[in-house]
Structure formats: C-alpha cells, structure tokens
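Service request form, structural biology core

Requester: graduate student, group of Dr. S.
Request type: structure prediction, single chain
Budget code: on file
Notes: please return the result as structure tokens.

Sequence provided:
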Amino acid sequence: MASSDPPGDDSLYPIAVLIDELRNEDVQLRLNSIKKLSTIALALGVERTRTELIPFLTDTIYDEDEVLLALAEQLGEFTLLVGGPEHVHCLLPPLESLATVEETVVRDKAVESLRKISAQHSPADLEQHFVPLVKRLSSGDWFTSRTSACGLFGVCYPRVSSTVKADLRSHFRNLCQDDTPMVRRAAAGKLGEFAKVVELEFLKSDLIPMFVNLAQDEQDSVRLLAVEACVSIASLLPQDDVEQLVMPMLRQASEDKSWRVRYMVADKFTDLQKAVGEIGRASCRERV
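Core staff response, request fulfilled:
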C-alpha cells in the first residue's frame, strides 16, 4: 500500500526556510521569521516541533535583542504547538537561555513566558523540570540568571511538595543575601509576591528575617523595594506579629537617610495603613 505521507524533502521545507532566514544578515528578515514561528510549528506538527524546531531555537540564541525579545514572547504561546501541557517542559531550555541574556527586556519577557507556562505543568512536572530550572538560574555564575530566578519562585512554590518548598525557600534566602545589589534588588521586588504563597509558619520563620535584612541593606534601591514588600507581608500577619515583626522596620524606613526610601513610605502610606491594622495605623500617623 502506497504511503500517503508527503515526500521527505517537502516535509523539511518549513524548517529549512527558517534556518535560511535566521542566518540571513538582514535583522528584519530574521525578526519576521521569528514572528512566523507558530506557522512553521503548525506545518511541522507537534512531534517535529518538539524534536527539531525547539532544539534548533535553543542552539541558536545568539542574535539581536529585538529578535530574542520576539522569540521569548512567542515561546510563551507555544504550549499547544508542542503537544499540550504534558510536553510543555520542552519549552524550558530556550526560555532558560533567554532568561540569562544581558538585555533586561529580553530577560523580563523570558521570565514572563516561564511564569505563564509554569501553570501548565503538572505538580510532578514542576518538580522534575521547572524547579530544577529555577535552582540553576538562582545559582548561576552571572547575576543576570540570578535576577531572573527571583521572578519564578512565587509561581511554582504552591504546587510542590514540602521538601521542595523548603529547598526553594533556601534558594530564595541566598538570593536575598547575594553579593550583587541587582540580585538583592530583584529579590526584594519579588519578596511580597513570594510571601503571599508561603505558609504562615514559614513566613514568620524564614521570610521575615529576609525582609529585615533587605530593609537594612546598604543600597537604598534595595531598601525602598523592601517597603513595597512590607505591604504584602503586613497584610498576611496577625496584628500582634505586625507590631513585633514589621512595625520596627517600617518606623526605621520612615526615618531612612535616603529620601528615596522615605518617599516610598509616603507613596505607599495608604496601603501600609490598610495592611498594618489599627495599632500600626496609629504608629504610622505618629511618624508622619
């Protein structure tokens, strides 16, 4: 019986065209090719997209920032094109590479796509594929990977086992204590989000000490982000804990030597009043 499959040369055509266009010296042609990735993936089918297209893209992440930005955005919409949630982990390698590049907007878009596809992983796949990625990024040699890692803890933490959760908290603690100010700044910026998914017991035992350290950081760009985290943390704690654990840092921030930190307290004042409760509100008013 004759096969109904198209000739081999025809089936290779879409990826051959993609390879040619991505090697072209014209940046606009390479950009247009990336923007057509979904069409190319449809032509290849889910299996060849997983086994040929995604590995090819992973190996060729050396391009102009605008091309990489488009690629990071495209990959966040590729779940169905690789066969659905059970195969979504195959998108992690190229996005992991994109999350380490020098250009901030590319890294941010890669993290955004990683956050999006994390929800499509099963708990088992999160532990087998996504959490190892987070750990690799958080312990990377370059600060770029460690800053990207900070945005991924909050999306995977709620659906993993208690052992893995403890490991994630430990990695986040390391990021809060990183030698590079940019990494500590990224961690401070995501501390409030992470606090919302961490159990109350560990919020008090693990995250509050991280918050205290960040609120006393030598860099005012880190301290002012700790003020933002204060809003989320205070809203999650019982009133007694707010007065004991949060208010001392808030009082300190309101008298900070940096006008930027004091400005952040003033800017977030209404939110802080709502979060800290009656005792905290009275204390806040005394400080203003």
